[in-house]
Amino acid sequence: MRNDFSLMIHGGAGALDNVKDERIAVRYLESIRVILEYGRDALSRGATAVEAVETCASLLEDDPLFNAGCGSVLNENGKVEMDAGIMDGRDLSAGAVAAIGNIANPVQLARLVMDGSEHVLLIGEGALHFAQHCGMELTPDHYFFTPDRIRQLDEARLRGRIMLDHDADGDAQKYGTIGAVARDSNGDLAAATSTGGIVNKRMGRVGDSPIIGAGVYADNETCAVSATGYGEEFMRTVFAKTIADAVEFRDADARDAVDFGIGYLRRKVNGRGGAICIDRHGNCASGMTTPKMIHGWIEHGGESFCRF
Ligand code: GLY
């Protein structure tokens, strides 16, 4: 067994008013806890950081509670268009997909782009073509159409505007995205982020999650970062790379780097969201500008913690 690993996962940020209902809060925390323990098991058996973040992100995509994979929100045409990215801190290799439907686990397709193509980002029809070329099965539309997501889109259409995930009262309540960062026992870092984006978003809109340096970043010499928030603000501030640059150029640890990134996000664009980060020494840190962020962590193989 190998125990000097660290792992963090998140399931979205926002006001999260729905977690005032204790039953919903328990469901979120239980899902995060179970997935963290799954990741612990994999890492302690020698899984690489890349394998761990892909596994944890896939499990989050499989849980309809979260806005990714089967729980993805619907766009203005009532369709799912998902984004995902993954990065390997060993050599800065990266893969991403954007504006795709019919893929149960977009993070797995992003991994195939990273490992099996000479490209970093594939979108839409081309990404699906690549998926089939790699032998990945397409998933029928009905898999993604949960009753909650259909009702949420109907509400957004009634209001005639974009909504940001579970947004019952008209204010931006939750910026749904899922993500994972890991440092394995060899000291290698990786990050993955996946999302359905924003309710009632324009067809073809791409957020920060598949943009390397915005919603996802990993470099063994600095840190691994996964972000969750209002994607346009994270792209404009190159948010994940800003956090990594704080490690590289200010000699920050994970805590100081996240604080620096959150401060920059707030100051520059009054950005909404948060991030999880593991630095090259395995220290874990999180931060957000929103009232809450669903996340959990295991630092240096210790106890697991889950928080809003
Ligand atoms: N952060 C997810 C998005 O804006 O699409």
Describe this structure in words.
- With about 300 residues, the protein is an alpha+beta fold.
- It has a domain at about 5-215.
- The protein contains 8 helices and 13 strands.
- Strands 1, 2, 3, 4, 5, 6, 7, 12 and 13 form a 9-stranded mixed sheet that branches.
- Helix 1 packs antiparallel against helix 2, helix 2 runs antiparallel to helix 3 (about 105-115) and helix 7 packs across helix 8.
- Mean pLDDT is about 90; it is low at about 165-175.
- The structure holds glycine (GLY).
- Glycine binds near residues 175, 198, 209, 229 and 230.
Inertia-based shape: globular
SSE string: EHHEEHEHHEEEEEHHHEEEE
Structural class by sheet pairing and helices: alpha+beta
| Whole-angstrom Rg | 17 Å
> How widely separated are the two ends?
30 Å
Average residue pLDDT: 92
Give the low-pLDDT segments.
166-173
The beta-strand count equals: 13
* Estimated helix fraction: 25-40%
Largest sheet: 9 strands, mixed
Bound molecules: glycine
Strand content: 15-25%
- Give the count of helical stretches: 8
Offer a quick outline of the entry.
The protein is of the alpha+beta class.
Break the fold down into its secondary structure elements and pairings.
Elements: E1 6-14, H1 22-44, H2 49-61, E2 82-88, E3 93-100, H3 106-116, E4 121-123, H4 124-133, H5 147-159, E5 174-175, E6 178-183, E7 189-195, E8 216-218, E9 223-229, H6 231-236, H7 239-250, H8 254-269, E10 273-279, E11 284-288, E12 292-298, E13 304-307
Parallel strand pairs: 3-4
Antiparallel strand pairs: 1-5, 1-6, 1-12, 2-3, 2-7, 6-7, 8-9, 9-10, 10-11, 12-13
Helix pairs in contact: 1-2, 2-3, 7-8
This protein binds glycine (GLY).
Glycine is lined by residues 175, 177, 195, 197-198, 207-209, 215, 228-231.
